[in-house]
Give the backbone structure.
Amino acid sequence: MSFAKASVRDAEVGGRRVLVRVDFNVPLAGGDVADDSRIRAAVPTLELLRERGAKLILISHLGRPDGPDPELSMEPVASRLAELLGTDVRMAPAVVGPEVEALVEELGPGDVLMLENSRFEPGETANDPELAAALARLADVYVNDAFGAAHRAHATTAGVARLLPAYAGLLLEREVTELTAVRDDPAPPLRVVLGGAKVNDKIGVIERFLEVADRIMIGGAMAFSFFKRQGVGVGNSLVDDKSVDAAGHVLEQAAGSAGELMLPADLVLGREFSAETERRELDGIEVPDGWMGLDIGRRTADAYAAEIAGAGTVLWNGPMGAFELPPFAAGTRTVAQAIADAPGTTVAGGGDSVAALDEFGLTDGLDWVSTGGGASLELLEGRELPGVEALLDRQAAGSR
């Protein structure tokens, strides 16, 4: 499936200033980067630009600061990126302004400058035109490689892209291509595995795929919204009450759709959310008072795994239970292993799914693991992503 937007591969960047929106919103621990997977994902685009003689200006958000916050500076990220690229990465003292402009003027071909956290600027999330214009003055070309932020109409994702020749980075291009193929042209039969806490977050994906997937398998805490809607006792299980009505709507739609909605048939319970809590296997779904469901049961996990084994395409978003607690990781592990072993096309997204794959050492067993959480869900629903729509169309770029 072809990508409709202009690619960084086609941009003329030699000796030019290139503003690259990256997604370096990474966890920090003790002043260092705790997980550099998002940084590593952007390296191919950055290396391509450096090889072609671009002067790189990088911008990303980090966390949700309310104004400048030294704890959320991009400095640790710049240090880790320098190690990965094998070159110096200079750190700007701000996002825009005279000092930043002076540093940009000093850049030579292949040099890299990291701007400060974009959310230190209040105009970032408001897509402020003045901030977008100030960013545009720093560069000649814009590249968006931050798929994880592409669903946000912010100054660094949509605003500045309207003011400069704007191209997709290699990561963003691959993300859109892989997820669009699953959405629009999956090899049958299609199996969709959904977990996590809230039905509301994924109702658009469920509704869309009920019409095209053979099976949608539900796990995680979101299963209890379905159970509660059906009048099944959920004990002390985590239930998002705002999702109960949404679950009812999904159940009604599923009754008249071609696809089958599968819910857990057995559970693993705990007294509380803790690795040390008392554990109990329940052959059924009626959770007694004083207990909470923390994983799908063995029978459910095996049934889901069997469905996955026969799939032409598998899409997974969300764990089957509290996989971060070892006594309650088996369901997610069984499903993840089945996906990694499946002969068909396998795609996963969502932060917790990615974390589970990393935890189990199964990431390399899938065809594509998305870096985007909300962005991947919105794309799969069929919604337009502002950060993608703002880029040049491939045809328009070719006529420049």
